[in-house]
Amino acid sequence: MKWVFIIAGVLILITAVIYITGLLLPVSHTATVRAVVHMPVASAWRRITDFSKYQDWRKNIKKVELISSDEWVESDEHNNTIPYKMEMLADGSKLKTEITGAKLPFGGYWIIELNGLNNDTEITITEYGKVYNPVFRTLSKFVFGHEASIKSYLKYLGESAGANG
Q: What total number of domains does the chain contain?
């Protein structure tokens, strides 16, 4: 019986440390990842801006529901739904995708920049994110990394270039 209390106490202590650490971390963060994909800029631009086909190349997306010409809702492999809006910032080279949902544990936006490198494209994604839940904030910072979503996105984009870039 003594071990049950010790284990329970340790779990409570770990949870408290994670929660308190999250309270001490800033809600906002910035993360930037750069990658080269083996497709021309025009192809990369079309692939990124045609969110109606995201489930075709982003393996973590099960479904995309179109709301308007610049808004959509993604359903991921965990059945989470997240609404987005896309805004062109510079024709053929820069855009903004923003999470538009309320009452989510996170929010923010990405600035996506494309630069041609011969027949390849260098893509830079900068995330201006917010993590509201202190526990998830700690995990995002120290376990998953703020760059995890960007890296996953760029990985799937790069893999899709080989299929039909």
A: 1
Range of the domain at 88: 2-164
Question: What CATH number should be reported for the domain holding residue 74?
Answer: 3.30.530.20
Annotate the chain with three-state secondary structure.
Answer: CHHHHHHHHHHHHHHHHHHHHHHHCCCEEEEEEEEEECCCHHHHHHHHHCHHHHHHHCCCEEEEEEEECCEEEEEECCCCEEEEEEEEEECCCEEEEEECCCCCCEEEEEEEEEEEECCEEEEEEEEEEEECCHHHHHHHHHHHCCCHHHHHHHHHHHHHHHHHC
Per-residue pLDDT in tens (0 to 9) along the chain, 165 residues: 889 889 999 999 999 999 999 999 999 999 999 999 999 999 999 999 999 999 999 999 999 999 999 999 999 999 999 999 999 997 768 999 999 988 898 999 999 999 999 999 999 999 999 999 999 999 999 999 999 999 999 999 999 987 544
